[in-house]
Design a protein that fits this description.
Structural class: alpha/beta
Order of helices and strands: HEEEHHEHEEHEHHEHEHHE
CATH class of the largest domain: Alpha Beta
Helix content: 25-40%
CATH architecture of the largest domain: 3-Layer(aba) Sandwich
Number of strands: 10
Radius of gyration: 17 Å
Oligomer: single chain
CATH topology of the largest domain: Rossmann fold
Distance between the termini: 18 Å
Length: 259
């Protein structure tokens, strides 16, 4: 699916005749960012940095240091986790130039749009603490899956996904599932009538391919242009989601079910 998103974005910007220069890249401890320039404007995109998937194998920095529209899809297909994180951050920066976010969507939280009832079985793919706490106690059951053992706390390991995802009526997936390439497996385990959301700064890509795959809500983040330098500093100093979100706005885009 990540390959499809990349090809869709590259084709869309090419169709519109847009050109981009890469201004800055950084792989931070929590987030990776890419800053691009189109015309006189700059845009920034973010991706989760998958530290838990890094190994001691030599990482060739030159593989991803020159990311561009011409190379980004090759980087997305890479098995190098850092190359994939840089590529997704770049895609998200480019997506910010072509994704229309209606004014009434800016500032919205997922729970402003995705409703939960006492009969729902909810699975969070990724430990999204604030959302988990707000949903717990309002639904029948809540399961939390977390890949990273350092973030797991009381959550289940992601190996439990086949046990719980087919039971879920609502599924909330962290955007990190894009950069670690688990999104296809996760969607494949969801039942056909489950309502699915993808959330986080990493999820802030062009939404149409996500909607086409059956995702109902894309809850992303857009940095304010006047605060791009602040967001850059935040990532360089290992800031997390709470700190980063001070420099922009959350938003929620809603798609229809395929067919």
């Amino acid at each position: 699916m990540l390959d499809e998103i990349c090809e869709y974005v590259v084709n869309e910007v090419s169709r519109r005749g847009l050109e981009f220069a890469t201004v800055d890249l950084c792989v931070g401890l929590r987030y990776t960012y890419a800053v691009v320039r189109s015309g006189r404007e700059e845009f920034i995109g973010f991706s989760y940095t998958p530290l838990e998937d890094l190994t001691h194998i030599h990482q060739e920095v030159s593989e991803y240091a020159d990311v561009s529209l011409g190379s980004v899809c090759d980087l997305i297909r890479s098995v190098n986790p850092l190359a994939k994180a840089v590529a997704l951050a770049y895609l998200n920066a480019v997506s910010a130039t072509i994704t229309e976010v209606p004014a009434d969507s800016l500032g919205k939280d997922l729970l402003d749009c995705m409703k939960f009832s006492s009969n729902d079985v909810v699975v969070f793919v990724g430990y999204i603490g604030p959302l988990v706490r707000r949903v717990s106690g309002k639904v029948r059951e809540v399961y939390v899956l977390e890949r990273n053992p350092l973030r797991r706390q009381a959550a289940l390991p992601d190996t439990a996904a086949p046990r719980v995802l087919p039971r879920a009526t609502k599924v909330v997936i962290t955007g990190a599932s894009l950069v670690n390439d688990t999104i296809d497996q996760v969607l494949g385990m969801c039942r056909g009538n489950a309502e699915i959301a993808l959330v986080g700064a990493t999820a802030s890509t062009y939404p149409e391919p996500l909607f086409n795959a059956g995702i109902r809500y894309v809850a992303g983040f857009r940095a304010h242009r006047e605060h791009i330098s602040d967001a850059v500093r935040c990532v360089k100093l290992a800031g997390g989601t709470r700190e980063l979100y001070r420099y922009g706005s959350k938003y929620v885009l809603t798609g229809s079910r395929p067919g």
